[in-house]
Amino acid sequence: MLPVAALPAGGILLGLGYWLDPTGWGANSVVAAFLVHAGGTILDNMGLLFAVGIAFGLSKDQNGAAALAGLVGFLLLARMLAPGAAAGFLGRELTDIQFEAFRRANNGNAFLGIMTGCIVSWIYNRNYQRELPAALSFFSGRRLVPILTVVAMSVVAIIMLFVWPVIFGALFNFGQWFAGLGAFGAALYGFFNRLLIPTGLHHALNSVFWFDLAGINDLGRFWGPVVEGDIGTVGMYMAGFFPVMMFGLPGACLAIYRNAKSNSKKVVAGLMLAGAFTAFLTGVTEPIEFSFMFVAPVLYLIHAILTGISMFITATFQWFAGFNFSAGFIDYILSIPVPYAVGQFMLIPLGIAYFFIYFFIFNFAIKKFNLKTPGREDEEDLAAEAAANLASDDYDAVAKILVEGLGGKENINSLEYCATRVRVEVKDYLAINEKKIKSAGVAGVMRPSKTSVQIIVGTKVQFVSDAMKKLL
Hints:
- The protein is mostly helical.
- It has helices at about 5-20, 30-45, 45-55, 65-80, 85-90, 95-105, 110-125, 145-180, 185-195, 200-210, 220, 240-260, 265-280, 285-290, 295-315, 330-335, 345-370, 380-385, 395-405, 435-440, 460-470; strands at about 410-415, 420-425, 445, 450-455.
- The chain has 3 domains: about 45-175, no CATH class; about 180-385, no CATH class; about 390-470, 2-Layer Sandwich (Gyrase A, domain 2), CATH 3.30.1360.60.
- It contains 21 helices and 4 strands.
């Protein structure tokens, strides 16, 4: 999520540029050209950003040496896989699909960036404290990592010379097949996108449809130069999210609040209001989704189905808008003047309809099946919920509660965070006190394995994580 955080900056610059010059995209305005080129710099180098950001973000101590190694590794891989270099190494002329595959192995290739970042972080975490013999002591520890990265990525580059065209061809064919399904394909994508949220694998799915990985590149094409014949198709894998995130989930929040018990409505109101506002403005929905995902999975299945239906409707009627970060109000406004945005104003009435659809369906299901959504827990859980203090911004106090709930400092092996979650590796699984953790006002607790705990904090996760690290 660290490199993804750079996307809004690019989106704002591009959006402002398009507002100033919606037809020429900078050709008719020096200021617009400056903004478009500045924003494009971020999107055109997403692979590089992923390599650096993931190598840094997954390193145990999040040291700049890991980011440097990520940069070195990606530059080496991109250079070795360039069409001219690849043809020379293979000793033959490239086929069309090979040339296209190697041409796209550039700074904008998110797949290669993610792969590089993961490999480099793995190398870093195993060698950043390694000591060498006295004669080579200068290269001990973190200085050893870039050297090992060069060796490892050279081997990876040799393997990718043969594997990458095959992978690219398979993904390209998959993408073309999926794109050929039209509106139904968009519906399936929206459905599985939401279902994969709990695992985090929705990012892998998104990379196929949003980036230039399988020939679809819906996000890149939406913000790029106009291609004749593309109007009415670009935006198919983004537009349907706007009604859900801006309107549907806030409607779900209202239903959850309405069905909360009277002695917990105040707490639930704060949680749901914050979640609804965040979803509407920025498109970040995890704080809402994790509040009912595990306590009421039937609601989450309904949510995934409704997302697929929204994608189907927008694709069928060709109501398209795009985003750089997520389908919130900010991205919606910025996308309005983009030439590929067609029928974008119809997303608003669809969204209003979705607000009521979500509200009535969630309201009915919660009552009919007596679902334990926030505010409907047993009395002992309500007492803990009433003690929530995360909204006070007293991150030190919140961190103290969370560390105690995790079994104390001595029970924590490592601690990281992503977009909305604090991810913790623990020693003793039985020492965890979930009620204690939830008393800090967090949205939920996940236990993916016997040594892993994920605490759903929301958009303030960085500050909570930093405060926890200080305690550790």
